Amino acid sequence: MINKPNRAFIFDLDGVITQTSEYHFMAWKTVCKKIGYDLTREKNEELKGVNRNKCLDLIMEWGKIRLSEKEIESLLEAKNNIYKDYIKDLNENDLCEGVLNFINDAIKNNIKIALYSASRNAKRILCQLKIIDLFTVIIDGNNVSNAKPDPEGFKIAADLTKTNTKDCVVFEDSISGIEGAKKLNMYTVGIGSRDVLKNADVVYKGFKNLKIKDIINV
Ligand code: B16
Ligand code: MG
Question: How far is the CA of 193 from the centre of ligand 2 (A)?
């Protein structure tokens, strides 16, 4: 008898499991104001999934702004402090609708659950949401040298769950995350809008009403 292959679901955090992506946007918007740049929602799509330092590099490039190393460091710290203030009361009520049921169903079907988030605040958020124990593997911004759209974090997640990359499904709300996972031929499920996540294999608005059998054969 042929065994079913090992399969893994790799979840992004911000914008997939919880709506902290809005807090990242608001924190960047405040920091951008200080340097005279008006960050639009449209431009913010390009910051999703992108690590903190690279976000500021992009903002400086878009606004043609030059800053000293010291100013950069201080703005990065300011952004993170504003963000951390937004998430200080985050709790299990802040899980996106349906995502917990979806993850629990996947576990019942012997699918490994991994997280790959660019955020260095990821573990703290998983603890606050009280879901950290559901993940077999957690990769965050502290564990990778190359940020999304580089596939490094996705590859580590596949290796640590002992899953072939072709048997991994990635749930992502960012253009950069979808691009990274596609480089490894992982199956990509965009969470958000089809207009933004043009390259995802399928796109859903969220996990409400989404079943595992809509994604893979169980
Ligand atoms: P931090 P994800 C990403 O998380 C966010 O989408 C992105 O907007 C943010 O800049 C990045 O984390 C870094 O976050 O400043 O907390 O380290 O979507 O990959 O879960
Ligand atoms: Mg995200």
Answer: 13
From the candidates 14, 140, 167, 173, give the one annotated as an active-site residue.
14
Tell whether ligand 1 has an atom less than 6 A from the beta carbon of residue 21. yes
Confidence (pTM): 0.94
Kindly give the confidence (pLDDT) of every residue in the chain, 218 residues in length, as a single tens digit, with 9 standing for 90 and above: 666 779 999 999 999 999 999 999 999 999 999 999 999 999 999 999 999 999 999 999 999 999 999 999 999 999 999 999 999 999 999 999 999 999 999 999 999 999 999 999 999 999 999 999 999 999 999 999 999 999 999 999 999 999 999 999 999 999 999 999 999 999 999 999 999 999 999 999 999 999 999 999 88
User: Which ranges in the chain belong to alpha helices (H)?
Assistant: 21-34, 41-44, 52-62, 69-86, 99-108, 122-129, 152-160, 175-182
- 12 noted as active-site residue: yes
Ligand 1 contacts CB of residue 141 (under 6 A): yes
Output the CA angle 54-58-61, nearest 5 degrees. 140
Contact 43, 203 (CB under 8 A): no
Identify whether the C-beta of residue 155 lies closer than 8 Å to the C-beta of residue 114: no
Choice from 24, 81, 174 to test ligand 1 binding pocket (greatest atom count within 8 A of CB): 24
Give the ligand whose atoms come closest to the C-alpha of residue 116.
Answer: 1
150 labelled catalytic:
no
Q: How far is CA 8 from CA 71, 105, 144, 166, 168, in A?
A: 41, 13, 19, 10, 5
